[in-house]
Design brief:
single chain, 112 residues, mainly beta, 11 strands, 0% helix, globular
């Protein structure tokens, strides 16, 4: 079955960096687009970034463009989210997903 496991979240000061990882299993990873979303309690889950399968085209929400980078390592069945210049408003639970399948999420807290 499809399984997505995120890691790499934590506490960081504004301006800092974190790299999230999502290890996938149960499907042919390299053929699927993968995405990151985030959610703050009381708000809807919002799109952050996506990367295509095959040609690896990337897409970003305007709020993270220029600060976050999504990438993938098909040999490791892993998708990454490099987050730089973090802001307090980036605080959220970050989820990896493929279509209707979601990971359990990893908490990112940006605060001084």
């Amino acid at each position: 079955q499809v399984k997505l496991v995120e890691s790499g979240g934590g506490f960081v000061q504004p301006g800092g960096s974190l790299r999230l990882s999502c290890v996938a299993s149960g499907f042919t990873f390299e053929t699927y687009s993968m995405a990151w979303h985030r959610q703050v309690p009381g708000k809807e889950r919002e799109f952050v970034a996506a990367i295509g399968g095959g040609i690896n085209t990337t897409y970003y929400a305007d709020s993270v463009k220029g600060r976050f980078t999504i990438s993938r390592d098909n040999a490791k069945n892993t998708v990454y989210l490099q987050m730089n210049s973090l802001k307090p408003e980036d605080t959220a639970v970050y989820y990896c997903n493929r279509n209707i399948f979601w990971g359990q999420g990893t908490q990112v807290t940006v605060s001084s």
